[in-house]
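Input record, target 12 of the design panel.
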């Protein structure tokens, strides 16, 4: 997971992983039938580890808008941790596999769709409870959050900018009667 976070899934080789893990290459070959399986299992592990860490970061916040903000805040907090060099593995490799058909691209797309649905459902709930303006296009809001998260993978300065941009985005979408003070 650490190698893939820094070098991408293409950086995963039996030789490189064996060297980093201090195990014989033949052991890895026995565990994974081929390089693609190594990549798929690494992506699955990385995505689940990030999701588990994100769930562990969610703080109890009041209301659905608090949940949406909490999801975004927790996602950005995890980018700063050593546990996830390179940030969210799914986001990091999405560009790497955007035009490569196959099992890895399908898995990346599935994880991206699950995260999109999570954010959309939180935004939808916030709008239902009256915390977001009724005219807000939730699909666009979700798209913009995802776009800023994608931009956050470049460097620390961009992470901070993207985090502030999402805060402003949510502030603009927030119902005037329930704006933060």
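The sequence produced for target 12 reads:
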């Amino acid at each position: 997971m650490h190698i893939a976070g820094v070098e991408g899934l293409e950086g995963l080789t039996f030789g490189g992983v064996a060297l980093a893990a201090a195990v014989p290459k033949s052991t890895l070959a026995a565990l994974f039938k081929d390089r693609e399986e190594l990549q798929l299992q690494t992506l699955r592990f990385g995505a689940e580890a990030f999701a588990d860490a994100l769930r562990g970061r969610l703080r109890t916040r009041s209301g659905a808008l608090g949940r949406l903000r909490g999801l975004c805040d927790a996602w950005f907090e995890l980018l700063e941790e050593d546990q996830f060099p390179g940030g969210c593995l799914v986001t990091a490799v999405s560009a790497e596999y955007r035009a490569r058909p196959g099992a890895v691209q399908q898995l990346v797309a599935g994880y991206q769709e699950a995260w999109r649905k999570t954010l959309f459902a939180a935004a939808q709930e916030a709008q239902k409870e009256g915390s977001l303006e009724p005219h807000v296009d939730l699909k666009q809001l979700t798209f913009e959050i995802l776009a800023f998260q994608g931009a956050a993978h470049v460097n620390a300065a961009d992470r901070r900018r993207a985090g502030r941009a999402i805060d402003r985005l949510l502030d603009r979408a927030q119902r005037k009667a329930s704006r933060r003070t």
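Residues 103-128 form the longest helix (26 residues).
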